[in-house]
Structure formats: structure tokens, C-alpha cells
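Schema walk-through. Below, the input block comes first and the output block second. Nothing else is stored per chain. Lengths vary across the set, and this one has 97 residues.
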Amino acid sequence: MMYYVNNQRIKLLDPATVGLRRGTKVGKDRHNNFYLMLDRKSRIIMKDGFRIQKQKEMILEKNQNAAVSLAAGAPVCGKPRAFLEKQGIAVFVLERR
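--- output ---
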């Protein structure tokens, strides 16, 4: 299965290389932007937002100048979306093909 964000193919990475647990899906596009990928059907709530913020900090420890975004296949509620955007995490729709 291939993952796309804004019609750009996302290459899956080993989460350990960026300092995350192995259950986390992390991808990178051709512009070296990192994506935390949530491929599920249930909506993203505030508890997920806090977890995503911590994962971003862990990625930035190993890659100081990296841009980290969220690619979600599920709807993101308004409160966590505003929180993530305030923290500098853009929210995109994850496409599977």
C-alpha cells in the first residue's frame, strides 16, 4: 500500500531512526518533510494531539531543522487541530492507493 499527502508519495521510515516507538508510522516526502501518519477510522481527539506534540519533539531532537506534519486518514476535531497548528504542526489528509 502506498501513502500520499497532497499527491506526493510518502516514503515510510523506521521509527527508531527518528527516536520513536516502533508502533508509530513515520514518513518522509521528497522535500525531507516528516509526517506522523495516523491511518485509522476513529477521529483524532485532544489526547492524540498531546501525544503527537511529544512525538514531534522527539523527532526534532534527532533532526533539528525538520518540518513535522500530521497526515491523518480520520477526521481531526477542531480543538486538537487548533492546538497542533499553534504548535507548528500542519494537518493533512492521508491518502491510500
